[in-house]
Write a structure and sequence with these properties.
Chain C: This is sn-glycerol-3-phosphate transport system permease protein UgpE. Chain C: It comes from Sphaerochaeta halotolerans. The complex is a heterotrimer of chains A (about 325), B (about 450) and C (about 280). Chain A has about 325 residues and is an all-alpha fold. Chain A has helices at about 1-35, 60-65, 65-100, 110-115, 125-135, 140-145, 160-190, 195-200, 205-215, 220-235, 240-245, 255-265, 270-295, 300-320. In chain A, helix 2 crosses helix 13, helix 5 runs parallel beside helix 11 (about 240-245) and helix 12 (about 255-265) packs antiparallel against helix 13 (about 270-295). The longest helix of chain A is centred in the first third of the chain and has 35 residues, at about 1-35. Residues about 1-5 of chain A have low confidence and may be disordered. Chain B has helices at about 1-30, 45-55, 75-85, 105, 125-130, 135-140, 165-170, 175-185, 190-200, 210-220, 235-250, 260-265, 280-290, 330-340, 350-355, 370-375, 390-400, 410-425, 430-445; strands at about 35-40, 65-70, 95-100, 150-155, 160-165, 205, 225, 230, 275, 275-280, 305-310, 320-325. In chain B, helix 18 runs antiparallel to helix 19. The radius of gyration of chain B is 25 Å and the shape is globular. Chain C folds into 2 domains: about 1-65; about 70-280, MetI-like (MetI-like fold, Orthogonal Bundle), CATH 1.10.3720.10. In chain C, helix 5 (about 110-120) packs across helix 8 (about 155-165). The chains are: A mainly alpha (about 325), B alpha/beta (about 450), C mainly alpha (about 280). At the A-C interface, helix 1, helix 4, helix 5, helix 7 and helix 8 of A face helix 1, helix 4, helix 5, helix 6 and helix 8 of C.
């Protein structure tokens, strides 16, 4: 058995080759480019030559002192929290319903399709649509709220930071909860059905089954949903940019829109955009590190431990030989 | 096993194909005789369609036109054009178009060094400019920092005030453009006096503050950047107070340009009836006519409009045509550009454009850069109750200035109008709005603000 | 027992109400899109949310036809890009994930950490690097730069890894070895079927993503013969002064339809109970 494991290790490398190759060819240069130019004086259109700065962290200092950037981080965080928590909760609830073997929700297939649908329209279309929906002084939402007597006069949703952020959060939530749900359902489907059968025989209620069997086994997939949700949320770009161009008064200016503006809004500050990217990268890195740590799976730890032991063993064996 | 083989084979195939693609790309660049191809980059099909006409008029012209159209709306035109210009080579643009929002970047700003002076294309610039009587602002914008002309437009986008005849009659007893010109201008004081007159009868003078902004921006003496620093022209600063006054006194319907409510005001579907809009001829043709709620006089507001001189001169929009410095086909490019921008004869592009005959009779009439052409063309429109719009737009092109523009305008205007809204809706003090505006410019564009 | 059924029915009613509400929210934008495809530009400008059809479908179609590009070419190109990228991404991500889960090798953890880190770098700046690189090596006007890079899709590797960790029992790999199956064969014949729901899920996402991708193709493809559907729709939006909104919505509607078909076809595979005995306990 042990011998087997040792001889099979090379397949780990072998099977990773296509990925690594594609990465090296297409992404290595762009990635290095992003990391490096933050330490250079590269700005201005069409320039390809640059030199490293005497103070390598000059761009970083300038970005960290940039009030708009700091505010964009806060904005990103606020918008993210308000879309991500409801998104995951609703996705979990729907997953629980659709995978509940006793409820047997009818027309499930149709619902799953419909709920995922907002994700297949382009962000540009969605942004235009919501911009018109929340229009002022006349717009469908204003008309509706006034007809229902909730508002006396039309409300300018695009002018209040609260409503503007609320709409962006809602769009993000609405575009992505179906996506999360499908992932979670796929995760549940990967769980051995005999486990559910056994629990049912034992007379467990659907709620018990969900919390005692489904959720613990969904942990690895849930970790995926949380980490990608975190990354996607902090890199949130299209909707905030297209809905109100980051306004009003920077209320929907997320850090990615800020980075984009640094590079493309007129001054072509590639170096500062790169420094800001790296700062955002570090923030995401730390936050996902926390997620990974707090969601770490016991099985995975055990796996790592045995692996470490195996490697040690291997070394020892090698030394003996 | 068979399946494995298939996968392996297809993998190999993919590798080979990609390698051959690499190789192909390089070989192509190295060998090829003098080409008979002109690469044209544009963001609409306007200029490409013109070149079709050019080929039709000049059967001897044996160049193939290779057209690339990328829309500006998704923000990809400039990055793609920049890459294509910078990488030069076989597919580099020979002729490229730039819109007024970003043309300064290509004529005077960061990308100016790509643009070829018209005189290097074999065009007798000075004589032609005089002969065609080209609107000065288009020349100013198309002149590079060395003083060479590198870009011109075909369209003139000098702005007028476009007003409702019936409302004018109701308030002042006449709809005569000459009288209305003296009611709404010159200068903003008279304009707001007119606004007061209109308010008494329950009308709004404009739809939203965005309408007036184009006029204020276009007529200010200086642009946003002076000597490398942010400069807030007093006229532009006054927009803060104007915007607030418009709200406080209820002179408009408080719409934002390009939203449903703004379009609705063109056919009286808003809260108050709106007296007028600021705009060039294209606003009439492409926006107002279609949104008037009718297609012939008597329907909706169609035919109930007229144009008069605005309180201040300005221009809005327009396309400039440039040539690449590295183009190997400069002579042919020069011929085309001259025909589009400087030919004032009856077979020049602008004559067709002004009379709406480019694609046969009955097309949209539009104002053009050449005063000579407009003077011999017919600009009467049913939409304007039979008025000849060129009578107003020829001088309008003269009032406009191209000396207050910078390559940052699109971005800085957005920040400014954002802060103006903050102030005019009472969310911030005046000084706070200005301070925040400066902060925005400094933080996003690294421009000195003090 | 009766009481329990009653509460179940009550819960079920609640579930249906919620699901129907969410479905309506989902259908709404499509409804607006399809209705706007039948309205004129000026009708749309006056009132951009239209709920009833108008009579301009044909004239919008004519505007679409009058443009210099060929929608069929766009459809074929989009299909090539999306299918190619999806196949590359799904297959090679599964393979990489399998390498990460099934084998223990020294660089396994560092490699995984690296993949995760790549995912976390904001893309705005690296995009510049990518375009520069593609223009420099002259690989523009080709569909390959939109397909091959999908081979390295970190997010999908991450997903497949998580999925395998939850559902793959290494015992079946071992038993396959005992049966004399070669490793690559084991992956293709035994592991891939287990991953079917995961692959179908990710295939849908990747297909949708690539089908809708606009910015990279816009910058890399400048030749009309290589345009994808979204580029063509974007051309309709030409410049803000004179946009044919009716035709834009018609174009968008036509762009979205193939996605439904792909979704329905793939979602059939998101089902439970594949290779039952082979799953982790």
């Amino acid at each position: 058995m042990r011998k087997n494991n040792i001889s099979y290790a090379k397949y780990g490398y072998l099977f990773s080759i296509p990925f690594v190759l594609a990465f090296l060819i297409f992404n290595l240069y762009p990635t290095i480019y992003t990391v490096i130019i933050g330490f250079t004086d590269l700005r201005g259109l069409g320039r390809t030559t640059f030199k490293f700065l005497e103070d390598p962290f000059e761009n970083y200092k300038s970005i960290l002192n940039n009030a708009t950037f700091i505010r964009s981080l806060q904005t990103t965080f606020i918008i993210w929290i308000f879309n991500f928590i409801p998104q995951v909760l609703l996705a979990l609830l729907l997953t629980a319903w659709f995978t509940n073997r006793r409820l047997k929700v009818k027309a499930q297939g149709l619902f799953k399709v419909l709920i995922y649908m907002p994700n297949i329209i382009t962000a540009a279309t969605i942004a235009i649509l919501f911009n018109s929906l929340t229009g002022y002084p006349k717009g469908p939402l204003n008309d509706l709220l006034m007809k229902l007597g909730i508002l006396d006069a039309p409300m300018n949703f695009h002018l209040q930071s609260g409503t503007a952020r609320g709409v962006v959060s809602f769009i993000q939530f609405w575009m992505w909860y179906g996506h999360s749900m499908i992932i979670l359902i796929a995760g549940v489907l990967g769980i051995n059905p005999t486990l559910f059968e056994a629990a049912e025989v034992d007379g467990a209620t659907p709620t018990q089954i969900f919390f005692k069997i489904t959720l613990p086994r969904l942990k690895t997939i849930l970790l995926y949903v949380l980490v990608t949700g975190l990354i996607g949320g902090i890199q949130m770009f299209d909707i905030p940019r297209l809905f109100l161009w980051g306004g009003p008064d920077n209320a929907t200016l997320t850090s990615s829109v800020f980075i984009y503006n640094q590079a493309f809004a007129g001054s072509y500050l590639y170096n500062r955009a790169s420094a800001a990217s790296m700062i955002v990268f570090i923030i995401i890195l730390v936050l996902s590190g926390i997620l990974f740590y707090s969601m770490r799976d016991r099985a995975e730890i055990k796996l790592k431990k045995t692996e470490r032991n195996r490697l040690k063993e291997e070394k020892r064996m090698g030394a003996v030989r | 096993m068979k399946r494995n083989m298939r996968i392996v084979v297809s993998l190999l195939l993919i590798c080979c194909m990609s390698l051959s693609l690499f190789a192909g790309g390089q070989a192509e660049g190295a060998t090829k005789p003098a080409r008979k191809v002109i690469n044209l980059w544009s963001f609409t099909d306007e200029v490409p369609k013109m070149l079709e006409k050019y080929k039709e008029l000049n059967p001897d012209f044996d160049y193939e036109i290779n057209t690339t159209i990328i829309a500006t709306t998704d923000g990809a035109y400039q990055p793609a054009l920049d890459q294509a210009l910078a990488s030069s080579g076989e597919n580099a643009p020979d002729i490229y178009c730039a819109e007024s929002a970003f043309v300064l970047k290509y004529t005077q700003g960061d990308a100016a060094y790509f643009a070829a002076p018209y005189k290097d294309l074999g065009i007798d610039v000075d004589a032609k400019l005089k002969e065609a009587d080209i609107a000065q602002y288009t020349v100013d914008i198309g002149t590079n920092p060395n003083g060479d002309l590198v870009g011109l437009g075909y369209q003139a986008t000098g702005g007028a005030f476009i007003y409702r005849r019936s409302i004018a009659k109701d308030v002042w007893g006449t709809d005569d453009p000459a009288v209305i010109t003296s009611k709404v201008g010159p200068g903003w004081d008279k304009f707001f006096k007119a606004a007061e007159d209109l308010k008494k009868k329950g009308y709004g003078i404009i739809s939203g503050d965005g309408d007036i902004w184009h006029a204020i921006e276009g007529s200010s003496e200086k642009g946003w950047i002076v000597d490398g620093k942010l400069y807030i022209d007093p006229d532009r600063e006054a927009f803060l107070d104007i915007a607030k006054m418009l709200i406080d006194k209820g002179y408009h319907n408080d719409t934002r340009d390009w939203t449903d409510a703004w379009f609705a005001d063109m056919k009286d579907a808003g809260d108050k009836q709106i007296f007028g809009f600021f705009g060039p001829a294209w606003l009439i043709n492409y926006v107002m006519a279609g949104n008037s709620g009718g297609t012939k006089p008597g329907e909706g507001t169609y035919g109930d409009w007229a144009v008069c001189e605005p309180p201040v001169g300005f221009f809005w929009g327009g396309t400039w045509v440039l040539a690449n410095n590295n183009s190997p086909v400069k002579d042919a490019v020069g011929d085309i550009i001259e025909w589009i921008t400087l030919d004032s004869s009856n077979t020049g592009l602008q004559y067709y454009w002004a009379n709406g005959t480019l694609n046969g009779p009955g097309g949209t009439k539009d104002t053009v850069a050449s005063g000579t052409v407009m003077r011999k063309s017919d600009g009467t429109l049913d939409f304007l109750g039979g008025q000849d719009m060129f009578d107003v737009f020829v001088p309008a092109g003269k009032f406009a200035t191209g000396k207050n523009k910078t390559q940052y305008d699109e971005t800085i205007n957005m920040y400014w109008r954002d802060q103006v809204r903050e102030y005019s809706y009472g969310k911030k003090s005046r000084s706070q709005a200005i301070a925040d505006f400066k902060q925005q410019v400094a933080d996003n564009l690294a421009i000195d603000v003090d | 027992m009766k009481g329990m059924r009653a509460t179940t029915n009550l819960t079920k009613t609640g579930i249906y109400i919620v699901c129907i509400f969410l479905s309506v929210l989902s259908i709404f934008p499509f409804w607006v899109m399809f209705m706007n495809a039948t309205r004129s530009t000026f009708e749309i400008q006056q009132n951009s949310i239209g709920l009833v059809p108008s009579k301009f479908l044909l004239s919008n179609w004519e505007i679409l036809q009058g443009k210099t590009f060929d929608p069929i070419v766009g459809f074929v190109n989009s299909m090539l890009v999306s299918t190619g990228a999806t196949l590359c991404a799904v297959y090679f991500s599964s393979l990489t994930a399998y390498a990460l889960v099934a084998y223990s090798w020294k660089l396994r953890q560092p490699f995984f950490t690296f993949i995760m880190a790549v995912m976390m770098i904001p893309t705005q700046v690296s995009g510049i690097g990518f375009y520069q690189f593609m223009y420099r090596i002259g690989w523009t006007n080709s569909l390959w730069p939109l397909i091959i890079p999908a081979t390295a899709t970190p997010a999908m590797v991450f997903f497949m890894r998580q999925y395998l960790m939850a559902s793959l029992s290494l015992d079946i790999v071992d038993s396959a070895r005992i049966d004399g199956s070669r490793e690559f064969h084991t992956f293709n014949r035994i592991i891939l079927p287990i991953m079917k729901p995961a692959m179908a899920t990710q295939a849908i996402f990747t297909f949708v993503f690539n089908w809708n991708r606009l910015f990279e193709p816009l910058i890399l493809l400048t030749d009309g013969d290589k345009y994808t559907m979204p580029i063509m729709v974007s051309l309709l939006r030409g410049d803000i002064y004179k946009t044919e909104y009716g035709a834009v919505y018609l174009g968008l509607s036509m762009t979205v339809l193939p996605l439904f078909i792909v979704y329905f076809a793939l979602s059939k595979h998101i089902i439970a109970g594949v290779a039952l005995g082979a799953l982790k306990e």
